[in-house]
Design brief:
The chain is mainly alpha-helical and 214 residues long. Helix content is 68%, strand content 0%.
Amino acid sequence: MVYQTEETRRKILAVAETMFVDKGFFGTQMKDVAAAVGISRNSLYRYFHDKGDLGYAVLATVYTRVKRHLEQALRDAQAHTALNGRERLARFLETGFQSRELRAELTFMAEFDSYFSGDRIPADFRSHAGGSIPLSGLSMISDLVVAGVEDGSIRRDISPQELLPMLVYSLKTLQQYVLLRGTALVDLSPGDEERLLPNLLTVLVDGLKPVQPD
């Protein structure tokens, strides 16, 4: 009988996350993870059925760390009571989505999303990936958006339920594109990629301002 241990499982997750970030999700094979951990490939498959199963497990640990960071960013934004809802939202998005401390975690999520796209999206993807998220970014900022609508600093013609995914997915998509391509982005001068996300955030936050009547 082969026994699984929590220590080995944690080691597998740590090694796999590093490899997914350094070599990419496509470039990392289960045999490579097994070799790096120091176990046989058969032993690795006793812990995780395939690379997708391993990826989901790593995603859960990554989201746990990201959640802690976002919760702190949210507390910091809410503490600035002199700011209106839109300004507090902008502060949260800036500190929560542009942190260099989370570069490895954000790179893993970019690799994960790139791999699980198109025909590679399994039928149970939402239940597996969604179940790994302790508290989504959407639910975190809903109170800030509602507060901005109520105090008049955020436009009312688009519902908060529609604004939330627009904000988060716009930032997330560009962020992941920059992380995966970096200086290889075409039609940009050297260093331009570093300004893409801050500039997008400025445009998005400005676009939240109430619409003035003609």
